[in-house]
Request: fold
Amino acid sequence: MTALGVFLIVIYFLLILAITKPVGTLMYRVFEGQRTFLHPILRPLERAIYWLGGVREDEEQSWLSYAASMISLSIFSVLFVYLLQRFQGHLPLNPMHFSTASAPSNATPMTPDLAFNNAVSFTTNTNWQAYSPDTTVSYFTNMTAFGVQNFVSAAVGIAVAVAMIRGFARHTVKTIGNFWVDVTRCTVYILLPICFVATLIFVWQGAPQTFKGPATATTLEGVTQVIERGPVAAQESIKILGTNGGGLFNPNSAHPYENPTPLSNFLQLTLIFMLGAGLTYQFGKMVRDTRQGWAIFAAMSAMFLAGVFVLYWAEQRGNPIISNMGIEHVYTGSQPGGNMEGKEVRFGNAMTALFSTVTTDASCGAVIAMHDSFTPIGGLVPLFNIQTDEVIFGGVGAGLYSMLIYVIVAVFIGGLMVGRTPEYVGKKIEQKEVKMAIIAVLATALVILGFTALSSVAKFAPNHYWNSPGPATANLGNGGAHGFSEILYSYSSAAGNNGSAFAGINANTPWYNLTMGIDMLVGRFLFIIPALAIAGSLASKKLIPVTSGTLPTNGPLFVILVVGTVVIVGALTYFPALSLGPIVEHLQMLNGKLF
Reply:
């Protein structure tokens, strides 16, 4: 690792630390219905949305009604996005004529299974893309289907997190807020204003924002080159802020149109963590003890910093097999050294390690390098980040409610240690809360490991067409341990609603499109529904006064307990699978047998 690389990582973390309180304070005021500096401009828009939707702003919902509203919106979103994709050939703003008879020869057909996978992907805030965006989806579909869902899915995640916070903050009530009001306020006062400013900055830095089709240019060699473009900047801002991750180009944020400069890269990194970090402070404000929020922030930060420095070390160290061949692989000032396969030279190992850690901590899925080309330990870090159920800052909202579920498990363990009913922020954690937490944790593990096992041994998994069966392993770019890691990463990314990939796998087949669609649905809704059930149960309980026997939950010891719970649960669940993938691949590399 270089001193400059470490310095950049530390500066980034200090920036996130600095903005956590102001962002959290703004979010607290928005969701508490208090007036902010944006209200004179945006309050009429908020009221108009309530009027059009028939929403009563002062009417709250039980957790069951809140969950039903969330599910109904999600069902509508899946159907809406599916139909738009299937009929995009008959809709405007399609200069490349995708899904028509005159589509380019390199266009990817929008088959029913691919449209289903995409609809589920963008509704669940996953943005898994089993296709090349610039050869498959029209501008209209990108904006009205995927772009809209980038806002909606992010707002839904934050709304659920706020509802769960209310469960801890309120007492002896049966309501946890109004889903439609929470989604509206999040979109109007948080997502839209930040995205508006970010879009202008991206355009300033060089990201295109146009409805014109591809440009054609003649190179110096006399070869005709087709240059794709589109409404990139606007999609980029919400793709990053909403931790969605799906871009308009196949290389994603490694593409110079999506991420033109080091400044735009640093802005993207900041936007990814901004709301997830702010929610921790909002939690402390709402439970009237900001130290509780900072304790959660500290637990997330400890795991983030551990991950980024392990990943940076692994990539900067490089591949010893290359070193044994006598090839220079050490940083010299004139060349970056380390493992540069699959990386943008303009970003280097330090920024790549930081971006890859941040995007998999936050279930964003945007990438500036191909994770498939990382060293085995370098690839293990983003994979394990996802398998922690994205609790390390996590997706917008999803990170906090996932972490709170692990906090419940940690408090339960702590309660067993001190021999009394576990408590957290004045609420007893009892049988129902622990059962719901365990259901959420086990559900994702079940689909990740189950589908990975099936895809590793299935002999008749449908591939390109239903009448053309073959083994699912035929779609791998690599064999052995790395091929297994490609499958494991794909299902982990889907269940974690992340969307990044070990790109060596071709996942655009009926088998992967359908199984990963199910994977995404389970990972999203079997975490949200238990979280809302916990919120409803806690909101109805009385506050318990702190006594000498109460386990402190705002100090370093509790931070260590939470981090230990996350790591141990993850290790016990996934270590056997990781042993068959990146761990055995690392041992092969050390023995010089990778190639």
Q: What stands out?
A: The first helix runs from residue 3 to 31.
